[in-house]
Specification:
Chorismate synthase, 378 residues, binds the ligand C=C(O[C@@H]1CC(C(=O)O)=C[C@@H](OP(=O)(O)O)[C@H]1O)C(=O)O, Chorismate synthase, AroC fold, alpha+beta, 20% strand, 31% helix, four-stranded antiparallel beta sheet, binds flavin mononucleotide, five-stranded antiparallel beta sheet, Chorismate_synthase_CS, amino-acid biosynthesis
């Protein structure tokens, strides 16, 4: 079983990840992980924090001479911003109190987290509920991506909507999305990107924030990851769980999940054909590569809806937890839009789940053992 533990507060010393269950003898290129960490920091609409951080992974264990050795892989990503928060984030010494947060932000975990954990200062909630944690999930996902590359499994992601600005003709071709990611193709319809940027700028001008939609494609996944035999083994359920755990994601769609609800069955399902060379084939992919809780060999298509960022520079109404009087929600600093960043997080989270399911199906302690079983099955 492949597992990931994450720890770390947003303005604490740093973030920690532990991956347990990674097979041995997988070549890991640290530069590739750092590239994915950098991708997560990009995207129009991010705030000043991203000017401070330059996320880099430091491996502590589990990798030797560039190869995994089967033991838990532990790693660090330091918070450069900690330097500016030392007096408020010291684990041992008493923290200064003049930055206590008492005005919970609607849309964030502030109010319920403070009540649930019986805190005096909402900062305790803010620090861990922050999406800073997603840096660890991207680093871990990037490592798993390198494992999956051995089996020709690859993922791409792209933003399909920022607020009400949508890509009209959604790119459905995985290779084209990949090119877009490499900046060869920017957008299907000329001008869409500018409209998205304008939408973010408009929000920013009014102290507001935006959400949007991103899409993930995973190709090369063999038929049969996940299972129909028990509810908690279904691949669509597992992917939804993982994606829903990405901060701000409130909707997950698989294939044409919503669109299919409006169609007749005759138009909604992907008919089966047989080709002497290719075996069973489909000529459409409405199901998004998953039927009966199992990958069916087609490209896995996932779509996620992210709510607008909860911290507003023109703050929403709230209640001060000390005076119980009406107040405006706390704002220290914030992104206006983080959909492009969330898209990278989603891509890496989805790959982590595919890696976990791949290992569950093909088993084995080393890459060689897994490769043998995979080849036999294929
Ligand atoms: C990459 C990324 C960056 C984010 N940046 C901010 C931010 O600057 N300010 C903010 O209030 N929320 C930000 N969010 C969203 C919050 O983390 C999220 O709304 C919060 O954790 C509550 O989400 P939930 O209701 O889905 O659990 C960001 C999310 C992601 C994925
Ligand atoms: C630190 C990251 O994102 C943060 C996520 C976040 C939130 O509330 O989720 C709030 C902001 O934190 P800060 O107040 O320090 O600027 C974002 O910058 C990151 O993505 O690495």
């Amino acid at each position: 079983m492949l597992r990931l533990f994450t720890a770390g507060e947003s303005h604490g010393k740093g973030l920690v990840g532990i991956i347990e269950g990674m097979p041995s003898n997988i070549y890991i290129d640290i530069n590739e992980i750092n590239k994915d960490l950098a991708r997560r920091q990009m995207g129009y609409g991010r705030g000043d924090r991203m000017k401070i951080e330059r996320d880099k992974i430091e491996i502590l264990s589990g990798i030797r001479g560039g190869y995994t050795i089967g033991s838990p892989i532990s790693f660090l990503i330091m918070n450069k911003d900690h330097e500016n928060w030392k007096e408020f984030m010291d684990p041992i010494l008493e923290n200064k109190e003049d930055k206590m947060i008492t005005k919970p932000r609607p849309g964030h975990g502030d109010l319920t987290g403070y009540l649930k954990y019986n805190f005096k200062d909402i900062r305790n909630v803010v620090e861990r509920s922050s999406a800073r944690e997603t840096a660890v999930r991207v680093a871990a996902g990037s490592l798993m991506k390198q494992f999956l590359k051995n089996f020709d499994i690859e993922a791409v992601s792209h933003v399909t909507a920022i607020g009400s600005v949508k890509i009209k003709e959604a790119i459905t071709d995985t290779e084209l999305i990949k090119k877009a990611d490499e900046s060869e193709v920017r957008c299907v319809e000329a001008g869409t990107e500018k409209k998205m940027i304008d939408f973010i700028e408009e929000a920013k001008k009014h102290g507001d924030s935006v959400g949007g939609v991103f899409e993930i494609h995973i190709k090369g996944v063999p038929k049969g990851l996940g299972s129909y035999v028990h509810w908690d083994r279904k691949l669509d359920a597992k992917l939804s769980y993982g994606l829903m755990s990405v901060n701000g994601v409130k909707a997950v769609e698989i294939g044409y999940g919503f669109e299919n609800t409006t169609k007749f069955g005759s138009k909604a399902h992907d008919e089966i054909y047989y080709d002497k060379k290719l075996g069973y084939i489909r000529t459409s992919n409405s199901a998004g590569g998953i039927e009966g809780g199992m990958s069916n060999g087609e490209v896995i298509v996932l779509r996620c809806g992210m709510k607008p960022i909860p911290t507003l520079y023109k703050p929403l109404n709230t209640v001060d937890i000390i005076t119980k009087e009406p107040a405006l929600a706390t704002v220290e600093r914030s992104d206006t839009c983080a959909v492009p960043a969330a898209s990278i997080v989603g891509e890496m989270v989805a790959l982590s789940i595919i890696a976990e399911e791949f290992i569950r199906k093909f088993g084995g302690d080393s890459l060689e053992e897994i490769s043998k079983r995979w080849k036999d099955y294929i």
